[in-house]
Amino acid sequence: MSQFSTYADLLAAVTTDGGSPVHDPATGELIGTYTVGTVADLDHAVATARVAQKDFAALKDEERCELLLKAADAVEAAAEPLAELLSREQGKPLNGPNARFEVGACAAWLRATASFESPDYTAVDDDITATVHYRPLGVVGAIGPWNWPMMITTWQFAPALRMGNAVVIKPSEYTPLSVLALAAVINDVLPANLLQVVTGDGSVGAAVTSHPDIDKIMFTGSTATGKKIVESSAANLHRLTLELGGNDAGIVLDDADPAAIAGDLFWGAFINTGQTCAAMKRLYVPESLYDAVCDALVEVAKASPMGVGLEEENVLGPLQNQQQFDIVDRLVKSAQDSGARVLLGGDPDYDAPGYFYPTTLVADIDPENPLVIEEQFGPALPIIKYTDLDWAIEQANKLDVGLGSSVWSSDRDRAREVAARLEAGTTWINGHGGVDPRVPFGGIKSSGYGVEFGTEGLKGLAYPHIING
Question: 240 Cβ partners below 8 Å, 6+ apart?
């Protein structure tokens, strides 16, 4: 049995008396307090991680894979307490594609990462025998976001560990307990000091990106912060993987079935209450299907309850913080002020507890409205009417972001033809945002560079050492 088999056990492991408070974004209630780390704490973590990494790198690949599988077992044994803490701190409901889903994804990603074949290979012909060994980099600095704090942190450390690195994690100040808890559970089975968490404010994050003894930085977050990381890491020539902001477009083709796609359209946009980098944030619909798609989305939205995450019936929750609430509120108001038609939502109760913004669908909106061209990162979807497919494709590609996109059609071949014209790291057909640990994932333009997942992701956490001859 896990030592973290109850929520109380897990909370006790990650909270301290007299520390910084963490509040539930759904209710405002105090969850607990935690010790805020400093740059000195980071220096100590990096130094001890560097020592631990030497022995870990000497293990065989299969031994490291076995540790990842044990880590997955540990996560599964503590799954319910982890999900409860995540729901309380991040706000996402237990059910739907939310807290229990996220914890399950952590275990699944650990198992998948352990299952990939080693990227090592040998090239042989009459003139050459060259063996390519992917060697660990050393210490990886992982800076994670608040929207999927456990899952994205796992995306960062699982491949890093598989390739023989140590990892120092800097979680978001908004969701430190979730990451501390996940690390506590996994460290039950890992060698000491190999996976460490250092909390703190922006000064600690900045110190990670400029630390001379960190060999690789992985960051998921905003484009603005990503640019700062590029600048601060330049002096040390840190290797970087940056998964930055997006404003994903979905394009419905005129042969689609509105009723058939409505549910997947909705969750493509509103997964995690819209707080997902690769969520669909603007939807282009042909005039011939426009009203039908709008009506179908309204029906799905009405059937998707929003509320406190620990109440089992809810599948949508609050925004995680006041800053994000204000962004969504501003952008929806800009649409309303421009004369766009609000089909549902758009009228938050500012006096109610929690950062709840109602599920909002906005039709008949100008394609240049801020709600369309800025990333809202919340439960508000603009639906743009088009009459010319080439125009819709041009609109989808015009922004300086390119994380994901999608095409919706009853004709898969036609959908693939349109998909090939979209500028994004991933284009989904009849779905949006579904990532797979076996398939590389990353962005283009200002959505970042480098890829995660699969064998290509493993290669990004190592350097190729070629023995030639």
Answer: 216, 217, 218, 219, 229, 230, 233, 449, 450
Element (H, E) at 45: helix 39-57
Domain ranges of the chain: 7-244+447-468, 248-429
Using CA atoms, how far apart are residues 379 and 317, in angstroms rounded to an integer? Answer: 10
Q: Indicate which residues carry an active-site annotation.
A: 243
On whether the 248-429 domain is CATH 3.40.50.970, my answer is no
Give the global pTM: 0.96
Quickly name the fold that domain 7-244+447-468 has. Answer: Aldehyde Dehydrogenase; Chain A, domain 1 (3.40.605)
* Packed helices 149-162 and 61-77: angle between N→C axes, nearest 10 degrees: 160
User: pLDDT (tens digit, 9 = 90+) per residue, 278-292?
Assistant: 999 999 999 999 999
> Taking Cα atoms as reference points, which of 220, 235, 159, 113 lies closest to residue 449?
220
Q: What is the pLDDT of residues 214-240, one digit of tens each?
A: 999 999 999 999 999 999 999 999 999
List, in order, residues 6 or more apart from 197 with CB less than 8 Å away.
168, 169, 170, 171, 176, 179, 180, 183
